[in-house]
Description:
alpha/beta; Rossmann fold; seven-stranded parallel sheet; about 45% helix; about 15% strand; globular
Amino acid sequence: MANVVITGGSRGIGAATVSAFARRGDRVWFLYHKDHAAAQAVAQATGAEAICCDVASCTDVQAAFSRLPDIDILICNAGICHYGLLSAMEEAAWDRLFDVNVKGIYSCVKAAMPFFLAKQAGCIITVSSMWGQVGASCEAAYSATKGAVIALTQALAKELGPSGVRVNCVAPGVILTDMCADLGQETLEEMAQETPIGRNGQPEDVAKAMLYLAEADFVTGQVLSVNGGLVV
């Protein structure tokens, strides 16, 4: 049984990942920011413990991690998106996107390191996106944050490997969560048709990839694409 911390665990991919690790028999804590009702529903359904925390705040993260007895696996899933032309994007929106999607990983990894270094072992899994691999029109800022997540993952794998810590990344494709709500059914159907497997993904598809990376002792510094072959 491992002690697992999952950020952004109240919905979508995060909630599916909380459920997957709880079913595996692990002790799970998850961080969430605003939706208390959704967090409590996930906690009640899985037996995991919900902790309210804005990962963009180093102070919040340190306070959250101070409540934990130990950590074996850290899954940095929390993220937000932004759709629109870069020329129309406000500076505050750009800053918030990077604060959550990139700085949030920095804060959580830094807070988890004392646990990992004390036992010279640990597993970190980050969540990027296929747009972090190839970029997307009207999602330049989001793509930039997710590209940064990949670079950070690969650098940390080299930096932390000698300390027994593995660091890997999943890069989801079109996953049917509320992040896709603004795309519209017609667009989602078109993207499913463009995908070799012939469908869009479910949060559980990504959670299964997380389970694999948590157990793959000889895998580090890798980006596992979970996109049905849409980006190869």
